[in-house]
Design a protein that fits this description.
The protein has 82 residues and is an all-alpha fold. It contains three helices and no strands. The longest helix has 25 residues, at 22-46. The radius of gyration is 20 Å and the shape is elongated. The mean pLDDT is 87.
Length: 82
């Protein structure tokens, strides 16, 4: 009985493989939506012009929104493990 050697070669580099992954794409989309939502919430709740807003507060709101988008797609309950 002869066995052939199985050669599995990964296609593309790490970034290309990640971008083909549907779960990774969904995570990126939810993070972007969360970041935009965080900025809009900050903009509406503060009620001041964009040029007067401190940049640190804007970045913090965008970061919190992006984290919420990340958490929505990667929490245990989102993956069916509750």
């Amino acid at each position: 009985m002869e066995f052939k050697k199985l050669e599995i070669k990964e296609e593309g580099n790490w970034i290309q493989r990640k971008l083909r992954n549907p779960h990774f794409r969904k995570t990126l989309i939810y993070m972007a939506v969360g970041a935009v939502g965080g900025f809009i919430f900050y903009y509406v709740s503060e009620g001041m012009s964009r040029d007067v807003m401190p940049m640190g507060d804007i970045i913090q709101s965008i970061g919190v929104g992006a984290f919420l988008g990340f958490f929505v797609t990667n929490s245990p309950c989102a993956r069916g493990r509750c």
